[in-house]
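ESCALATION

Customer reports they have been waiting on this structure for their group meeting. Please prioritize. Original submission:
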Amino acid sequence: MILGNVLIFGTVMMLLVATMIAVSTSGAVKSATDRNFQNAMTAAYAGLADYQSKLSNDNGYALFGNAAAQFSKDSGSSFSGQNGNGAFSAWTKVIGSTDQWYRYEVDNSNYSAKGVLKVRVSGKSGSSVRSLVANLKGDGFINYLYFTNYESSNPAISGSSCTTAYQWQSGSKCPAVQFASTDILNGPIRTNDVFTAACSTVFNGSVEQHDTSVRSSSGGCSGTFNGGAATAVPYLGLPALNSNMSQETRADLPTTVPRPGCLYTGPTRVAFLGNGKMTVWSPWTKATQIQVVASTGEVQAASDAAKSAALCGTVSDLQSAAGATIPTLPSNLMYVQDIPSASSNVNSWATNTYPSKYTNTYCTTAVTVKSNGSVTTTSNQPFSNGQGFPAAGEWINGGASGSSYQTGSASDAYSCSAGDVFVSGAFSGAMTIASSGTIWVTGDVTYVSATDDILGLVGQNAVEVYNPARCTSYPTVYQRGVGYVTDTTRCNQNGVGLLNRSAGNSLTISAAIASNAGTFLNQDYDIGPKLGVLKVIGSIAQNWRGPVATTGGTGFSKNYVYDQRLLTTAPPKFLQPVSTSYGVTTQVEVQAAFKPDGSCATTSTGACR
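Update from on-call: job pushed to the front of the queue and completed.
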């Protein structure tokens, strides 16, 4: 009996031990599987971080990738090579790990159009593979409602001989331009300098600057900070020139410029028509898309003239009085350049030659620019830059001179050869206008659809609100042997006013605005009555702070509203920062793109994912 009990008890114990071993072994297998599953996603995150760091170190890295990768091939992406990066085509070990690997595929099809990259990253650990897709966008000045390099006015425009320096630096410097008590800023703002604000200025977004203290314009307060106290951030650089944007009009660079935009030359006027079309006047333009002869540097018209004309308008229409009415450029860019001086450039003009129908301009006729801006040789013959500027009766303000204003010349404000753009109207589409000169906003620029339309305005020298002045009272001076005569070189203070705006008039601009070497400002901001509200829906980036009003009761009040879409997208081929870090705007896990052996994972139909 005892032996039988021992055998029975021993058998039961052996069964229990065997069961415990089996459970323990299966738990170990499950634990290893869970660990590999988690580590695979960790490896994918490591791959995403690797690609982000390469982008941040080289903004041109978006042009590298594996065109044969399924994710890239499906999107129509194009690359100039893989730059020796094995992660574009094979598993790459996570640094410091023995069992984690990653690889990635890039979709750069929307990079030039929207500044957005999409990347599919796969991570592997053991037999587990997991994939994620992330959208990346550079953390540049378009991420801010308002960005400046300097918080002082451009001395070249203000006429000041002050010292170029940041407000936080010691020593003499140009005076700061301040936010007024009526200003409301509805979005994040940033400067490499420091802001100055009145007590009643309202900041409804984050405030980022060189240090944590916004200067007070008067008293002991510096505004209402509904978005939190100011924080210190590092330097963010604007490019010195926007001339690289003109490369987007070359038809001979299919890899880097697969969809060339339109090139216009000299003063150009653009009227948006609200129906997805625009009328463009550009009398100096000879070729709207170009190609460059590598051996000589000669700039020629693109070989496919019909294609250029269909997109950009015919040259004859652009030079006509009616202009060229064309669709707004589809997710593309127009660049307006100065008239080239090199004779080997197709858009150059020989000395003393002018466009047909280009008469009554101070480019073609030697005239004396009078202080009232009429620029005439006879009372009924106005002269301009060929696009109607200065307007009849416009007085060109050259700045204060004692108790009066000293006039400047029309060509100081409106060149007949610079790449200036004059723009207004209801915009529909997705487009960027870039200028080697100044972009003049001559009237409201609004979106037909606030959700679908997006516009960029990039002026090398300035983006300026057209706000012309007039003069109705001139001083008299005594000339020996003649007597008292009217001095038309100066205007009495009580005779200075605005030509086409009255007290309370407002203006709306819907666009991402940038002036990489200049400023955004209101022309004649210090003349005339108090105007209404200057509403900007989008973003503003500028090298110098541009004034739009004075504390003395002239100019516009600001109501700047950030277009939240700019956090995840940008106008087509918009100005890029000198350097930037790339942040993830959206991220989602997707089905695994690869098998552990590196072959593609397939769909139910057998196609690679």
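Sent to customer with the following note: The two ends are 69 Å apart (CA to CA).
Escalation resolved.
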